[in-house]
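I am writing to request your help with a piece of structural work I have in hand. Thank you for your consideration; the sequence and its tokens are set out here:
=====
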Amino acid sequence: MGEGRAPVAVAVITAFVAAVAGGSGGANADAASTRASATPSRVSATSTRASATPSRVSATPLRVQVGQLIATGFPGTTAPSWMRSRLSKRELGGVILFGYNVTSRSQVRALDGRIQSAAHGDALIALDQEGGQVRRLPWASPLRDGFQQSTAGVAYRSARSAARDLAAVGANVNLAPVADVALGSSSEMRRRAFPGPAANVAKLVTAAVRGYRGRGVAPTVKHFPGFGAARANTDDAVVRIHRTRAQIESTELRPFRSAIAANVPLIMVAHALYPAYDGQRIASQSPAILQRLLREQLGFKGVVVTDSMEARAVLARSSVQEAAERSIRAGADIVLLSGSGSYLPVYNRLLARARSDSAFRARVAQAYARVRALKATLRK
């Protein structure tokens, strides 16, 4: 696709969602024929505009639309049969790999190949390959932690190398780079974030996003709307960000604005509470943050993915299935499940709600359109 893959990705997603706006697939969508969607044709990014029509979304069974909004982890180093079955039926949109899924290059390449074979070449295969200490593929780039990537040239080359290494084993989404601005020596993100003040972080994030272009791997900036003031990880604790709106908009949002301007295709949303925007809902469940701030104020048109839905900050508020519904309703497009045990409760909850609630069904159709358009740009 050349150097224009990332701008094309966002343009295609925008066109697809615009075409779907106002038409959500209706209550009878689940009874529609699955033949066309069960084995999707290979679609180039340049041809997707013509095929991204409301009728294509409305003809997609609701069980498929819902499934495509879920990415899950799994134990072991081979793809379990239940997961391959769900991928084959397109009732699962993608997977995330962790260190315990990885033993060698050849094993990961074979694993990803079997996942794609089950999914008819249509799966998102994601992992966290930030650099340094956060690398699911220990042999792959970036070799440096974020704070050690001190120039735009280094950030660009590190991202370029990461995309090459991920593509070589069949992964097509990197849940990186980190776009947080580390605020002080006690910041949870002090090693993982790029160094310096907001302006420098924005420059490095932009360089990293550009490094992925044309490599068949989509980057994901995180953790919106900024996690650099955190002193703990939401995986392990409930986190409240004590920053004013003025502070967040002048500092934390700056790298995200730059990434959006560089046409980043995915943004990961945090599970922290940001009282400056919403005193009741964590960011991943907040329409104020996902719709009004990210979509309307910042103009992001791509795919919003949650951080792990099994995080303590999430489960302290509700079950994982209720949290998943809240996130999709608020504006997330993909819910990320770390453990395979969460898949069925989440899938069943989302499908039941989509069947019974027309507003939620419309939100599912919108999210599905974004995911489909993203996948179209990643197809060979």
Remarks:
- The longest strand covers residues 218-224.
- Residues 358-378 form the longest helix (21 residues).
- Residues 1-5, 21-29, 31-52 have pLDDT under 50 and may be disordered.
